Amino acid sequence: MPVHAHMEAFEEKFKDAMKSSVPLLDKITGYIVKRKGKQIRPMFVFLAAQTSGTINESTHRAAALIELLHTATLVHDDVVDDSNERRGFFSVNALWKNKIAVLIGDFLLSKGLLLSLDNNDFHLLKIVSNAVREMSEGELLQIEKARRLDISEEIYFDIITKKTATLIAACCAAGTASVTKDETSIELAREFGTLTGIAFQIKDDLFDFGSDDKIGKPTGIDIKEKKMTLPLIYALNQCTWLEKRKIIGLIKNHNEESEQVKKVIDFVIQKGGIAYANKVMHEYKDKAIKVLHQLPDNESRRSLERLLIYAIERKK
């Protein structure tokens, strides 16, 4: 990975960006740093930057800004969802209660804003603030539409573009904007991130129906949470009104019963929902690669392409 050294340096800089003089805050932010995941977002920032220029201090701030604002939204999400766990660890609200978790989210948000303002990174702040706004809109749109359980593909793509793709788009755009003022490069990076994010989300949708193409052990978590995913939307559009009513009834009223969830999964497979979502995911991947190939050809661009392919071929 051409940005390995930068990723390691980023760890330390991110810890510094979270520092506070309040011991409780330091304890909690230390806990957050320790349990961070694969660091995919900073990787997108650094690879996008190195595709179009030379990584600098502004690139590191872009990566820290994205992580601070995104972590703030995750901490708040756990409060909203009353979730006690994130990635196998206790959530902040589970360990320190809701009031503290909300304040931690606010603290991280302010740290991100100040990091940008103190360094006059207004262009980066604009990119990332827009992403946070869109993510909030996407969540609210999903909540509003989830009640009906009968959404169109158009609304589904609107939701996932805002909820998931916007953040990856912001990583790529902010990374690029940290090394060049060329608007065309920044826009291409943003578009690549959007298309990649949509492909990512469709892959996640497919996991709900099994772990591989042979449909391994289905989880049905999205069905239990009454989430409308692409395979399900497609399947519902391929059946009679009566079948549709029956399946929506199962999701609405029997979503906690494993046997009934399995019926929904079988229905989606039988109606070709899995095959369709797979096809669409690959179409987005191809579009993303086409956009990426308009940027300079170098090792970082090739790594971005590999990252995209890994994301849609991963088994978990």
Could you name the CATH homologous superfamily? Farnesyl Diphosphate Synthase
The percentage of residues in β strands lies in under 5%
User: What general form does the structure show?
Assistant: globular
Global structural class = mainly alpha
List how many beta strands DSSP finds: 2
Indicate the low-confidence ranges by residue numbers: 211-217
How would you describe what is shown here?
The protein is mainly α and 316 residues long. The chain has a single domain (4-313), classed as Farnesyl Diphosphate Synthase, CATH 1.10.600.10. 75% of the residues lie in helices and 1% in strands. It has a two-stranded antiparallel sheet with strand order 1-2. Helix 3 (40-52) packs antiparallel against helix 14 and helix 10 (230-236) packs across helix 13. The model is unreliable at 211-217 (pLDDT under 50).
TL;DR?
The chain has about 325 residues and is mainly α. The chain has 14 helices and 2 strands; from the N terminus they run ααααββαααααααααα. The two termini are about 20 Å apart.
